[in-house]
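#lab-general

N.A. 3:47 PM
ok so I finally got the sequence cleaned up, no stray characters, all 148 residues accounted for. can someone with queue access submit it? mine expired

B.Y. 3:52 PM
send it over

N.A. 3:53 PM
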Amino acid sequence: MSPAGRPSQRKQVLVDRAYQVRFVTRVFAAVLAVAIVSALFSMSLLWMNMHRPELGSQTLLIACLVSVAVTLLVELLLAIPIVFYLGMQQSHRIVGPMNRLKHALQAVGKGDFSQRISLRQGDALEDLAKAINRMAESLAQRSPRSPT
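B.Y. 4:20 PM
back already:
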């Protein structure tokens, strides 16, 4: 929460660029691989059926099936940016809190026990952040010196 009591808004989408790009690339590669295998399978079935002499009178049906296959390919191409965007959003919900946890733990490791982690409600790792805050409070109470 921000000081005004409103949920804070993320200012950047790429918090840990290397991790997030790797995450989205893996999701993208998996979706693309499935799509390519599916498209190749569909096209091979259509291609085999197009060259069967007994189907000569069903040319219209074959043309319709090809149209469906092309339509599915276009839909896949439209889905790719959506998958990319959703992957970035999801990875950000994980990487943002992890980044805050890392910085807070580094500060606690240097003796700054006043460090607290503030995550938005519903963020991934919210329970872990609360546990770390309790730990820092406990260490601050035990520590005879104040942070410098």
